[in-house]
Specification:
Elements (H helix, E strand, L loop, with lengths): L4 H21 L4 H18 L3 H24 L4 H11 L16
Helix pairs in contact: 1-2, 1-3, 2-3
């Protein structure tokens, strides 16, 4: 079977472009956009919408989605880590003032 340039090469390039652009421009919604790309690809392929291009977008974005889900479950980098970092800072511990431990005798 021959390589179809639009669906076999263009769809992974489109997923890569979505990944890079969303990570730079809207990082707070980056994970959700990757999930939406995978869901749209698989649902579109199942319903017969968009042809091979949309189906290949779902297939191409599945490894990104699996990685994002793994990071969320593990609690590593990503939105859950940023949330944990924000939650662990507040309330912040009191800062010691200079000469706090000095006693005059």
């Amino acid at each position: 079977m021959a390589i179809r340039v639009v669906s076999d090469v263009g769809a992974p390039l489109a997923v890569t472009a979505i990944n890079i652009v969303s990570r730079v421009s809207i990082p707070e919604y980056h994970d959700w956009l990757i999930y939406a790309t995978t869901i749209a690809g698989y649902v579109g392929g199942w319903m017969g919408w968009g042809g091979d291009f949309l189906k290949q977008m779902g297939v191409s974005s599945l490894p990104l989605t699996a990685d994002k889900i793994y990071e969320r479950v593990r609690g590593g980098a990503g939105a859950s880590r940023r949330l944990a970092f924000k939650a662990s800072r507040y309330p912040a511990p009191a800062v010691k003032t200079p000469y706090e431990g000095v006693k005059l005798v």
